[in-house]
Amino acid sequence: MSYLVLARKWRPQTFSDLTGQGHVSQTLKNAIDSGRIAHAFLFTGARGVGKTSSARILAKALNCERGMSPEPCNQCPACLEITAGTAVDVLEIDGASNTGVDDIRELRENVKYLPSRLRYKVFIIDEVHMLSTSAFNALLKTLEEPPPHVKFIFATTEPHKVPITILSRCQRFDFKRIPLGQVVERLRYIVDQERITISDEALTVVARKGDGSMRDSLSVLDQVLAFCGDQVRDEEVATLLGVVDRRLLLEASAAVFARDTASALGVAAKVDGYGYSMRQFCGELIDHFRNMTIVAAVTDPRDLLDLSEAEFAALREQAGAVPLADLQRHLTILLRAEGEMAHSSYPRLLLELTLIKMATLAPVVPVDELLERLKKIESVGGGGVAADARAQWRPAAGASPTAPAAPPPEQRLASPGREGAAPARPVPEAPVASVATRGAAAPGPRRTGDDWADFVAFAKGAKVRLGSLLEHGSPLVVTAERLEIGFPEGSFALTSLKDRDSLASLKELAARFFGTEPVVALKPLAGGGGAPPNLLEKKKAESARREADLRQVAASHPAVSAALDVFGGTIAEVVSLEQKEKV
């Protein structure tokens, strides 16, 4: 006798044998009990979840010679003929092969006749969505008002392709994917009856390969038994099916969580050595981290995960020590890597880089913890950096201010905690002069002790362009009798001031400032050797010195020091309070 595959040998024969479709079997049994049996049924769902088996069981329940019963006896001639597929009154039609309108017309002619020996004539049309539009239209009237001795049972994996006019005339039952645990339980029952030795872990691998389909799972189990015989080892199952060993996934996640890049790269080497597809391993790793994320996010995630008890315990142990935010970041990295592998010529390199990135990923600090740290910094720093820094500005002792404008005298930032320290040099600010409208009278000269700076400020207040050019000049001689200014040889400022109009304006401003008519001389400087610095160079030097003082005070402030210690950072930029207020 030829071998009968497990999927056919162990096909469900009663509603109680159906796995994972309790909502369907219970509804059909109640309908038979109450006599509320529809004339047309539509069974929809994925492949191998029990649609055709349910149709046959329903046909037996309706035609059992011992009377209509929610559970057929499977012993009477009617039940045995339907099980064997030889009942003349139960017709199974393949919708993919009988798609034409002529096939449906033949079916309509057959509907008129009473059953030969059974109670009902049952038409089971599998893959009904493959019928043509004309065939569906020919079936409409018969389907809506069939004779009382006829029942229609349609089965399809794609209900969206069935016309709405057909759907509205049927009772629809949606078959679900069978949960992993129920598939494993059914497989365990079958292998025990077949006297086969196999572990629950191997059965879980087989069931996962079936992807929610009992028929596919039994086909995979048949393949495993053909390879291994009656004694099945876990390693042989993994090798035969080409699936990734779950222990390798746990090892990879453990290496990532331990920030052990060497072990993570070792996992990539094992994947390559076993001959697994890098993209397949990445997909398994995505599913693994997805399961851990759900375990960490949900109190009771068993209904959301297709895992055995051993796998669930291992995942809970790993996920319990990792923050949920980190798991989500790892999952995002893996999803991006899996997409890139589809177009990469170096999948192993991409996997290695992904594992290294995950293993070296900086942990996320929760917002609540950051707020607590900031509160500690505030408690250490008292009024804060700004208040202490504002209080530490003091006027420089004995300094003569250089700015002619009216703002408050320049202040100096002293280091905290240094009582009695000698005052440092003042930090002069750039002179601020009001810009006069062209042609308006220049303001009167203001004296601060620096004749050259005062003259440039006076000139800039009268003629902005002329004053800006003078800022580039070095004061060689500045007296009431002679004004000698040096400029770099060939510079734009020197060329512009030698213009007749500019030179005349310069002499006029000098006469007004000094109250005499000094001799004005413009001298080119070769290399600038020995010449005093111009105002722009002074401003730059003072600005650098001031920034250094600010950085020194900020670095020594207790609040800043505490912030650097808490966050592990460095000072990138220091801005004075005056500049910040201006902004």
Radius of gyration: 45 Å
Question: What is the top-level CATH class of one domain?
Answer: Alpha Beta
What is the annotated CATH architecture of one domain? Answer: 3-Layer(aba) Sandwich
Which structural category do the helix and sheet elements fall into? alpha/beta
Number of helices, counting only DSSP H or I runs of 4 residues or more = 26
Strand-residue fraction? 5-15%
Distance between the termini: 94 Å
Q: What is CATH's topology name of one domain?
A: Rossmann fold
The strands making up the biggest β-sheet line up spatially as: 2-3-4-1-5
Q: Which descriptor suits the 3D outline?
A: elongated
Q: Level of helix content?
A: 40-55%
Please count the beta strands (DSSP E, at least 2 residues each).
10
CATH superfamily of one domain: P-loop containing nucleotide triphosphate hydrolases
Explained architecture:
It is a single chain. The radius of gyration is 45 Å and the shape is elongated. 52% of the residues lie in helices and 9% in strands. Among the domains are: 6-174, Rossmann fold (3-Layer(aba) Sandwich), CATH 3.40.50.300; 244-359, Zinc Finger, Delta Prime, domain 3 (Up-down Bundle), CATH 1.20.272; 472-533. 31% of the residues are buried. By secondary structure, the protein is of the alpha/beta class. The strands form three sheets. A five-stranded parallel beta sheet has the order 2-3-4-1-5, with helices on one face. Strand 3, helix 6 (133-144) and strand 4 (150-156) form a beta-alpha-beta unit.
